[in-house]
Fold:
Amino acid sequence: MNFPIRIPLGHWAEIFVNWLTENFSSVFDSIKVVVEFLLVQLDSFFVWVPWPVALIGLAVVGWIVAGRRVGILTAVCLFSLGCLDLWTIGMSTLALVTTAVFISVLFGLPMGILAAKNPRFDIILKPILDGMQTIPSFVYLIPAIMFFGIGNVPGIIATVIFALPPMVRLTSLGIQQVDHEVVEAGTAFGCTPVQLLLKIQLPLAIPSIMTGVNQTVMMALSMVVVAAMIGAGGLGSKILYSIQRIDLGVGIEAGLGILFIAVVLDRILQGITKKQQDAIMHQK
Amino acid sequence: MGDETSSKIKIKCEDVWKIFGDGAEDIIKNWDQYKDMNKVERLEKTGCVAGTRQASFKVAEGEIFCLMGLSGSGKSTLLRCINRLHEPTAGKVFIDNQDITALPAPELRDVRRKKIGMVFQHFALLPHRRLVKNAAFGLEIQGMEKKEREKKAYEALELVGLKGWEKSYPYELSGGMQQRVGLARALATNPEILLMDEAFSALDPMIKRQMQDEFVKLIKKVKKTIVFVTHDLHEALKLANHIAIMKDGAIVQQGTPAQIVLNPAKGYVEEFVKDLPKTKFITAQDIMQKLDKWVMPVGSSSEEVTNKMNENNLRYIFLVDENQKIQDTVDYFNLTLLDGFFKSIEDIPKNKRPTHYPTISVSSDTFLESLLDQAADTKVPIVVNDSQGKLQGVISRETILSSLQSA
Structure:
């Protein structure tokens, strides 16, 4: 038995996206310019830094924020990355991920704050965030190409869409979880809403916000192959190549490269989160 | 405990209601309809919870006013209506005759910053700040310069006995010490009013008692008007000049500690007060008798004295000078023995007076407990003197016994 009607939703979506592309091309172009600029700067910086400097620098940071083991782990991971001849391309991936995370935090933090303070905004935002995380990322690759063309920028935008939700959610959660009595104390001593946010709510929400940043980083890393499908470079494109050629060796090496970068970023960010948490929850 | 009518009213609440939920206005208007329901029925019917209803009280400048009630009685809600942490649904709150309920946000903030300090049950300190920065918080919010505010924070911490701990973090301190920081933070801005929400309730019994004692001392030094919320009747009786007892959001009785203990309102308060060791709360002032029947001027004749004693059925009477100071104590039996020999008591040489008795004098805030001890040592009524030695009242053994009976 057939359904009584066929809704031409796909057709409508096409018309809508076309309409957006035609009428807002200048908006998309300027977004593209800004994102591209950011990426190029980061990329050329990461590639420019001599590998021993980057390796030792990150290892020291790891050591400081998370102890000796993480310091050593960082050094080993980065050294292995270089030994697989993936240093430069790895740095490109790092630049891609950093740009995407930067944009995610830039938008996610204020959205999270707003969601915590305004229940109505929260109600509207929740299903949108759910959608961003559950709709397969391939689906929004197509409009991304239509808006921004092929290349790194649509890859970054697609990554941001996927990696933004945890940032928003954990910021909002962190602010809502701040001890009610402490917030009351702030109000009782005459805080303005901005003072309340800056002096009480945000500082006490930092562990949760940092967890959000960490998750955003991990999700951005998981997107590098998908982003490569629409022309983003880095290790993702290498993996994509290996799939297309069924080249196991290249695939394994590039996959391990992503793993090394992920481990380094995760351990360092977790260390920072833990430090912040200790300062607030006082577990020494 | 001075005469409250003559001193200035600092805080005044008039028919303050706080109802949580939608349609609160309607509930206030038709309260008669709802008043016989219990909380749960009311919530089911209206979707609202009455936090505080029709609460009115006045707090005089410099006094400690206690809101006492069990949990859920609305005492903390009412306290928060004073600085509008809870927006009253209806009614008015005045501080220094200024209608707080009508203030726009910026002016309300100003009142909160300058006039009111608040202390919280679980201290509500900022865990990521050192004590000095916690204590300086109120001043920081006011925009005071760092050097100045930290100097004041040091002073406030010293005042509460935390000198030397300024650079520590709250987690390094015990509960009692953390609450001292809470107190220091509230005092640092030098507010006229302190709102204290179950300030000592989260502390161990021993620490709690110690904090109460120190608080009483501290308050004598800094002179604040204080509204103190507690569920502990002992604490209320110990600290307060006036107590308002709350039940189900309404104030059921107000009065001085002695009034509450001696004449509890029927039902709820009576039940509450029943098991109290009253001798610890009733003071000499509460039971002392007026002077008129107990004293005669020092120059009275023995006949006059005898007559007065017969008339009032007294065994002892005090002879006082024009300054209301006791010059002598007369025993009825000795007086009748002497009758006829002397015209006036004064005629007897002082050292030979058979009427000369040592009197026990106490101050008006002496508790019944210690009056009992002292009454055991003497047959002569105990006299109540003020700080200048002026006679204020008399407490006979019969008075003490009958007050024990009522207690």
Summary: The two ends of chain B are 22 Å apart (CA to CA). The first helix of chain B runs from residue 24 to 29. Chain B touches chain A at residues 80, 83, 85, 109-114, 116-118, 120-122, 124-128, 137-138, 140-142, 169-171, 185, 189, 195 (CB under 8 Å). The mean pLDDT of chain B is 84.
